[in-house]
């Protein structure tokens, strides 16, 4: 039996899955929350130990059957990491150095790696980066039109995120359609709490909606997505908001929550249905932005074969899928209401039979993608 342990270590939580690789089945999974809070799990090392204890108690024992690799989700790989990377001291220094660009994520990811190394010093630790899939963006797509020297000095460019999901879903799309990945032009809409769109041409990411940070692009649960940067200057000058206030505003008080007081799409759709005007506006802005990116990426790709919805909202919300693509029939894009609303959970087609553009729902599986990528380097 050959297994990979996948670890997603956040600032206050540790998510894990043990995957058996010949069948790609999940043997065990869990979530440890409230790390670092008073009276709870002390730190990431303690969380890791508590995970090991759970395995020893409930099986399968990790000490008797050690995994062939431990795969770690790392959010920011900057310009340095383009693929899954076996962790060395130098790799850790680089991940630490990129913390500037992902202050909430990279330090927590690194703590997960350190905790795992302490318990399993002989098992290869592999870092799989959220940015890596977007390393193929062209300079035209990743460059912000600002002073070039400043941008270079502060490593300012578009990096993109959710790469593990976009890669998994675009490959699963080719599989589902029985077509070769090389010839497929796909738009992946990863709509979770965070949300991003990706244009994938022949398996290669050519553009994505998140940028230097995960704030850019689509409207999200609590993040604004695209905004005129001068709004921030205006709020600083006139509203006296300082940089921490602005950070808080863009990341935690905007998006669906900022517009409607509700950050969860289920609540927004429900309230809009009950006639709540703020919720209706939040939904309208969300759908408008999605459609905007579908149009932009159709143009960048020079036509599109498949539009694919994934993650919490994308997999579950029929009204969002229908709304995002409403009125696009002249582009060959339409959604069949019965297929869209069917109570189905797996990979499925929701466009009418014979439609020029396939519209699909493909559940993402970032853990499995991380585990697969681990096996390519150990
Ligand atoms: P994360 O980005 O945290 O990984 P997920 O991909 O699990 O999140 O997506 C979580 C979001 O999915 C929730 O905030 C919720 O808004 C949304 N969601 C889940 N189920 C539904 C549903 N049936 N209808 C609309 N939205 C849903």
What does this protein structure show overall?
Helix 1 packs across helix 3 and helix 10 packs across helix 11. The protein has 378 residues and is α/β, with parallel strands linked by helices. The radius of gyration is 21 Å and the shape is globular. It is built from 15 helices and twelve strands. A hairpin with a 3-residue loop joins strand 7 and strand 8. A six-stranded mixed beta sheet has the order 3-2-1-4-6-5, with helices on both faces. 39% of the residues lie in helices and 17% in strands. The mean pLDDT is 96. The protein folds into two domains: 127 residues, ATPase, nucleotide binding domain (Nucleotidyltransferase, domain 5, 2-Layer Sandwich), CATH 3.30.420; 183 residues, ATPase, nucleotide binding domain (Nucleotidyltransferase, domain 5). Adenosine-5'-diphosphate binds next to helix 10 and helix 12. The site of adenosine-5'-diphosphate has 13 residues, from helix 10 and helix 12.
Topology summary:
Elements: E1 3-9, E2 14-20, E3 25-32, H1 44-58, E4 69-74, E5 85-86, H2 89-97, H3 106-119, E6 125-129, H4 139-142, H5 148-153, H6 163-177, E7 185-191, E8 195-201, E9 204-208, H7 230-237, H8 243-252, H9 255-260, H10 265-273, H11 277-301, E10 306-310, H12 311-316, H13 318-324, H14 337-341, E11 348-349, E12 358-361, H15 366-375
Parallel strand pairs: 1-4, 4-6, 7-10, 10-12
Antiparallel strand pairs: 1-2, 2-3, 5-6, 7-8, 8-9, 11-12
Helix pairs in contact: 1-3, 10-11
The structure holds adenosine-5'-diphosphate.
Adenosine-5'-diphosphate (ADP) binds next to helix 10 and helix 12.
């Amino acid at each position: 039996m050959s297994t990979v342990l996948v670890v997603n270590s956040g600032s206050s939580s540790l998510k894990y899955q043990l995957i058996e690789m010949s069948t790609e089945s999940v043997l065990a999974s869990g979530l440890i929350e409230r790390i670092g809070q008073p009276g709870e799990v002390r730190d990431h090392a303690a969380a890791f130990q508590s995970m090991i204890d759970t395995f020893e108690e409930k099986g399968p024992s990790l000490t008797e059957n050690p995994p062939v690799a431990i795969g770690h989700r790392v959010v920011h790989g900057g310009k340095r990491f383009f693929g899954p990377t076996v962790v060395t001291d130098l790799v850790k220094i680089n991940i630490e150095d990129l913390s500037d660009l992902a202050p909430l994520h990279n330090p927590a990811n690194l703590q997960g790696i350190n905790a795992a190394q302490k318990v399993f010093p002989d098992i290869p630790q592999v870092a799989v980066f959220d940015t890596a899939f977007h390393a193929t963006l062209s300079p035209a797509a990743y460059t912000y039109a600002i002073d070039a020297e400043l941008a270079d000095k502060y490593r300012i460019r578009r990096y993109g995120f959710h790469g593990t999901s976009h890669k998994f879903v675009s490959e699963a799309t080719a599989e589902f359609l029985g077509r070769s990945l090389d010839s497929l032009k796909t738009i992946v809409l990863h709509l979770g709490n965070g949300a991003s769109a990706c244009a994938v041409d022949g398996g290669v990411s050519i553009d994505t909606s998140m940028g230097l940070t995960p704030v850019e692009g689509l409207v999200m649960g609590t993040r604004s997505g695209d905004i005129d940067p001068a709004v921030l200057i205006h709020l600083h000058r006139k509203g006296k908001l300082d940089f921490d206030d602005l950070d808080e505003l863009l990341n935690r008080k905007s998006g669906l929550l900022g517009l409607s007081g509700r950050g969860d799409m289920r609540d927004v759709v429900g309230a809009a249905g009950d006639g709540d005007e703020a919720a209706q506006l939040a939904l309208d802005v969300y759908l408008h932005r999605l459609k905007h990116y579908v149009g932009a990426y159709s143009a960048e790709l020079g036509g599109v074969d498949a539009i694919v919805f994934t993650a919490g909202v994308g997999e579950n919300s029929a009204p969002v899928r229908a709304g995002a693509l409403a009125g696009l029939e002249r582009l060959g894009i339409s959604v069949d209401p019965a297929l869209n609303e069917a109570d189905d959970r797996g990979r499925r087609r929701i466009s009418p039979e014979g439609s020029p553009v396939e519209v699909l729902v493909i559940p993402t599986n970032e853990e499995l993608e991380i585990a697969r990528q681990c096996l390519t380097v150990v």
